[in-house]
Amino acid sequence: MINLLELYVKLGGLVLVGFIVGRKLPVTVPTRLGQFLFWVGVPISIVSFLRQSSLSGQIWIAPAIAYLAILLGGFLAWLGIKAQAYFKNPVPQKSTQASLILAAMLGNTGYLGFPITLAMVGKEYFAWALFYDLLGSFPGTYGLGVLLAARFGGGMHNYWQTARAILINPALWGFGFGLLFREVTIPTVAEFWLEKFAWSVVTLSLMLIGMRLALLKSWGSLPQAGMSLGIKMLLVPLILGSILPLFGLTGPIAKVIVLQIAMPPVFATLVIAETFNLDRDLAVTALAAGAIVLLVTLPVWLWLF
Fold first, then answer.
1. How much is the pLDDT for 236?
2. Separation CA 134–CA 131 (nearest Å)
3. Going by fewer Cβ within 10 Å, which terminus of the chain is more open, N or C?
4. Number of C-alpha atoms within 13 angstroms, CB side, residue 155?
5. Chain Cα centroid distance, residue 10
């Protein structure tokens, strides 16, 4: 529990600082910071942390479980929507249905999942979080997530731009380079500053989450968001976490996977909602409420797994 308290102090403190700063600075600041992290910071930090991570033979299971979590979350959300119709409750509009399903499917396994994994499990198993995010969550978000939004929403859809966004993602290229760079010997001083830079990126990522939360204005649609959060942050991690031993995943590795599965909705759900004319208020509410729910669910998963 001491580690958990330290995690809350560090993570919560940095997010709070970002929240306070985000309310004072121009709106362009979090945008610029996000661009820097996307194009420079995150790829370099991935290279650094990969050099210190252990790659076991089973690690390719991580993205498979990510896809399983995405599909299970979407399926349960779809069942929830159908159940409303069965019990003759008002059925949400298609745009709202899409936002409900996306919030139940797609988790913040990068900017939030990475620092939590590093703090609670350590660098040795960080590669599992990377494989889960970059080969599972990321393609699932901008592949399946966008396809779903296009099916339910409106607006112009350019699927080539979606594919291009995935292919040119700097984090994915940093991941590939990091795998090749793992065994290359570099001077000790370079290794030292590379690691310092990587941890600085983690700090800035948490502050960026606070800055973005400061820009969220709506808390409407809380009951509907509650269904998505219950699926995303409770049911899916509980179901999949209980079967991880069947895949031979136990101990710290299982903890990494469960933590990634249990992350709150990713900010990309809001981007997708805005792009495809989905229910933006629901997406905003799910993001803000999910960050708070995580404070309650995190110790549960650490205790169970």
1. 98
2. 5
3. N
4. 17
5. 19
Is the pLDDT confidence value at 2 over 60? no
Crossing angle of helices 61-86 and 236-243, in 10° steps, is: 140
pLDDT at residue 40 is higher than 50: yes
List C-alpha distances in Å: 188 to 86, 123, 137, 192.
64, 18, 34, 6
**pLDDT of 98:** 92
The band of 1, judged by pLDDT with boundaries at 50, 70 and 90, is very low
Residue-level pLDDT at 162: 61
**What pTM did the predictor assign?**
0.88
Sequence-distant (6+) residues with CB within 8 A of 171 are: 38, 42, 43, 46, 110, 134, 138
CA–CA dist 110, 174 (Å, integer): 14
* Average pLDDT estimate for 199-225: 84
* The token pair that represents 223 in the structure block: 């009951």
Instruction: Give the pair of three-digit tokens for residue 197.
Output: 């830079």
Report, as an integer, the average pLDDT of 9-13.
Answer: 84
User: For position 239, what pLDDT does the model report?
Assistant: 97
Q: Which of 13, 25, 50, 22 is nearest to 203 (CA)?
A: 13
